[in-house]
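Morning run. Coffee first, then this:
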Amino acid sequence: MTTTKRFKSSHSRRSVLKGAGAIATIGAASSFGFPAIAQSKPEQLVIASGGGALDEAYKVAYFDTFTEKTGIKIITAPYAGLAKIKSMIEADNVDLDVLNIDAAEAPVAGNNGWLEPIDWSLSDRASVIPQAAKDDHVYAEVAAKVMAWNTDAYGDNPPENWTSMWDVKGRPGIRSLWKQAFQTMEVALMGDGVAKDAIYPIDVDRALAALDKIRDDLIWWESGGQSAQYLIDGESDIGSTWNGRVYQPQVDGAPVNYTFNDALFVSGSWCIVKGTPNSKWSQEFIAHTLDPELQAVYSMNIPYGPVVPAALQYIPAERLPLLPSSEENIGKGVWSDFDFWAEHGEEVINRFNEWLLS
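And here it is:
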């Protein structure tokens, strides 16, 4: 397996739950020997996504290879939120086929009846990480919300987990967190000593009390780029970010490091819009993304892990420590409970926002 092109670290997980229920390329595509699918088909599928480095990695691994396999072009469109999905379905004017949306939004869409069931007869559902294979969506990757730090601040005394970030006396300095309840409340609970397997249901009072403990030393970031830049520039000594945000700066020599200890695993989801006239081929596309070799291509182009563990055998050993879903890292973290956020997100977000203003 050859090395890949260098990926860009421009990815930001979407800002979720603001409504609607809280609401080096490895091998040429031809090397996979795709058979032609001799059935009537559309000229294109339209996929709504967030763009950036994710779409660049998807293009290499999935979009271009699906076009080679089927002749169907993949067109990407900006994702405009669940309200847009709802309105197009109600108007019987569905012009999107596949969605790549945050895994916290997918159960909201599914609970409202806006998604087609996944045709699992096209894929081996048992080959997918159990958390990732749902009735009406499937996770696209395994990303990680991680604790990172400026090595100039803590080079001789690196933190070990989120409780280290809450140790203001032992590690004085500025902390930085995402200005969102989602993923931040979980971090606060782990920082306060709550075990990973006891995070849900979220104890809102305890999480806010934990945030109170570091409030005087806390600054907020509002984008993925900002989360990394705060740490690189030394505006923050320690904080939360996504592993894909700090990996490349670290490789390039920036004074930043991170750990997968107590990571919060998050993801995007592939799902099919209810009522698309191209449902069959949308199903074929989602099945295509679950090919282990293509999942390996994806993880070689961006440091997010595959949801099909068999893909790991196609990834060089030196790459595996960088991926959240590798055997050495998957046991260090905990999955975000997206169903919890779909059901209780509005209440938790309102409490968090009230705390921010207090």
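Confidence is low (pLDDT under 50) at residues 1-39. Good start to the day.
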